[in-house]
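Hey, can you fold this?
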Amino acid sequence: MFKLFIFTLLLAPLFLKAQTGFAPCKDEVSFRKHYADASKKLNTLKCNFVQEKSISMLKNKLVSYGEFSFKKNAMLRMEFKQPYAYLFILNGENVYILDNQKKTQVSTGSNKLFKKISQITVGSVNGDILSSGDFKSRIFESENQYLLELTPTNKEIKGFFTLFHIFIGKSDNLVDKIEMSETSGDKTVLTFKEKQINIPLSDALFNLK
């Protein structure tokens, strides 16, 4: 189950010194307010994404392209289109997966780690991640972005991950990129492009029948 979720995403340890151009945030109170306000106004989000997966045993990165959709109340859809077709849907407590015409449905309640990672993904988009008690956080900024550095404190999460980096655009206070560092030494980078905010999205998009 864990491997399936990681495959859909959402790293050798990625330290701040590798993130050039960022310095400690000058006004964290203001950032938290703007981030929270933007998240409250976010009802839907649709965009394209690029996923880059670096595996320690492989020389080249695995790059995938697809479409990302989000709707309030924990609805999330990631449709991988290139170089393979793969569909992942999170709808509340239910997860739907379509892989090579094989349909799978599971509940996040049956796996604590699976549930935590689902909360991280949704929380990164809707702004709840900063209020999570599962991380120790630091906030940095550059000219165009904020950077949330999240170090896991939850036992289940830190057994698999060493660090999360979430990049927030200053122009819209929404997620631009998520980086995940695994204890295995692998790295996943998910970049959001061409964001469309608060457009109509049917609930049927977040079900698999």
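Oh, and this one too while you're at it.
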Amino acid sequence: MNVKILGPGCANCKRLEANVTEAIEALGAAATVEKVTDYGAIAGYGVMSTPGLVIDEAVVVSGRVPSVSEVTALLSRA
């Protein structure tokens, strides 16, 4: 599973990264987490409001920080 966190590194982006890490550990999932900070690359996903969460190249959340339980559910579906 490939997970990308889209954002410039703001506080919300860091919270999203922490939630993603916690969810992956809780699931015991094998996942690669990548941080995308380039605005052109972020816009390429159609995300205009960060942070954004991409799972296997599909944008699943943008403009807000999902809870750990929501991230866990999103990862389980992937």
